[in-house]
Amino acid sequence: DTEVTQTPKHLVMGMTNKKSLKCEQHMGHRAMYWYKQKAKKPPELMFVYSYEKLSINESVPSRFSPECPNSSLLNLHLHALQPEDSALYLCASSLTRGQAADTQYFGPGTRLTVL
Amino acid sequence: GNSVTQMEGPVTLSEEAFLTINCTYTATGYPSLFWYVQYPGEGLQLLLKATKADDKGSNKGFEATYRKETTSFHLEKGSVQVSDSAVYFCALTPYSGGYQKVTFGTGTKLQVIP
Fold it and tell me: In chain B, where do the E strands start and end?
């Protein structure tokens, strides 16, 4: 099973709202990632968690706040977003060691619209 | 730094035509190479991968061979179907082990017409 699940599938929020995106995997992967994808562009890395600790923050604005409560779950908390933050948010996971450690498996994404 | 260059799209083909999407890369050492596919309105799916020179990745009739001498990983399929219409991303990771920063190409949109 190579499934990464994400909820919700679609989200519409105002600029003053607080919302959260959720990502889950049960493949025993210990690295999890958040990406942002704008239309007709490749995904852009936002955050990397390794063993539930934040390892990489690609200079993402503080209105995006990641959280990794356990090895299977990754959240992205959203607050005071701007319309330009509207995008597809993708979660991914990978092993952290071994022959297959280089392969990231992606979820279906959350389509976010900020009004 | 690392980079991936893909052919510009969109690529429009008739059903049952032969497909080639070109991909070349720049990286130090021996990266792992991937093709991901993104169907309309969906996330990325791993299509195939290769981790060392001369490896051939294959899946669902698609193939790509890791060519170290030409730093290429071209995607091919002998007979495309309408259901293959999607955006295809070539990508690399610089090494195995630990967490990875994936370098993606810009994506190539494929349209297959009946």
Answer: 3-6, 11-14, 19-21, 23-26, 32-38, 44-50, 56-59, 62-65, 75-77, 86-93, 103-104, 108-113
Task: Judge contact between A45 and B102, C-beta under 8 A.
Answer: yes
Out of B44, B93, B106, closest to residue A102 by CB = B93
State residue B100's pLDDT score.
74
Low-confidence ranges of chain A (pLDDT < 50): none
Residue among B32, B106, B107 minimizing CB distance to A102:
B32
On whether any CB of chain B is under 8 Å from the CB of A27, the answer is no
For residues B89-97, average pLDDT: 83
Cβ B73 vs Cβ B63: under 8 Å:
no
Strands B108-113 and B11-14 turn out to be parallel
User: Is the N-terminal amide bond of B94 cis, ω within 30° of 0?
Assistant: no
